[in-house]
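I'll show a typical protein example:
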Amino acid sequence: MVDAPAAPWQRPVPVSPVSADEVANVRVPTLEAFVLPPRVYHDQDVLDYEQDAWFAGGWVAIGREEDVLVPGQYFLAPVAGENMIIVRGNDGELRAFYNVCRHRGARMLEEASGTLPRIQCPYHAWVYDLEGTLKQPRHTELLVDFDPVEWGLVPARVDVWQGIVFIDLSGEAASLQEFLGEIVNEFARFDLGALRRVRRIDYDVKANWKALVENFQECYHCPGVHPQLNRITPYNSGQYLPSDGASMNSFMDVLPQFETLSMTGEADGREPMPGMTEEDHKRIYYSVVWPNMLYSLHPDYLMLHFITPLEPGRTHVRCEWYFEPREIEKPDFNPAEAIEFWDLTNRQDWWVCELQQQGTRSRAFTQGRYSSMESSVHGFDLMVADRYAADGVVTPQRRVSKQDSTQGVVDRAKRVAQDRAAD
């Protein structure tokens, strides 16, 4: 019997195009560090490496389990240049398959999501059940050494945390829980899988994917770029939380006169989510989950960004808002103020990220320096730099607190006032 390929053909992961020496000045404490070299935002060979080594090399967030709750429900997900089918089988199991027919390689499903009884190739009508098994195709009865059981759809690992679906094309990553690290414990008191999406907005951003993640990691830019955000959660408020594994976690404080992040600062009658403590009622939690998910937990809703690199200078961003079902069912439920708030904030962010993309292409730009308010940006860049270097060294993250950074500004103001008084 001739065995069919049991696993997808893996392109050899290329040698990193960014050397350890090139990012050595990033892999030091924040107050000494330089930002990433500008070419990593522009070079095609760098993005190709990131796709093969990172996006195809471990867990990546791709969607929500609420879209595949019953047998036959599926959605398609782009990952590292591949198109993946995420489908609920008749046995209740969630599976992921490459969207490729095993006959002559046609893409099978084109609709982004839906419900189907089977997976059928539109070209020659080869049929697979929801568990990926090939049914005997017509006119293959005379083939030599051909067993349909050996020619099912090519699978990939899939798992779920808090209703968020992750995929691992490599098949070799640690368990999802181990990969995620401290974020699992930090938010264990919530049942975020029970939330339901009320809105999705897709953005096509003309900037490198890493610039978007870096932007999410700091509020140093908020007073000038996001006045509507800064008036509710001041840019220098909050703290960094324990972070290990794939996540970097923090929170910002909501001022006493406000309830949540919305155009009015009010929750429009929505109750805090189950699991929220009194402390949580006045916090917005932010996390980045390597490499591509931005997580924002509010007292009354969850917002997620899923980031997909398209080109060195182009990124697709899918932003989704989730609320408690009991709130959605209320006749006066109105999420518009929260969605408008973040749609505005998103577009402000994409604007400055696109400006950065344009500017870092200039021959005049060399590696800049982080401010002391950008420890989390540096933390993400350390994840990037360590993976470029690929030398097995994990650079420790020593984040400078926002309070220490703010105190530095206060101390400088005092020194300036003293100097003026002395003159």
About this structure: Residues 336-359 form the longest helix (24 residues). The two ends are 93 Å apart (CA to CA). DSSP finds ten helices and 16 strands in the chain. The longest strand covers residues 196-205.
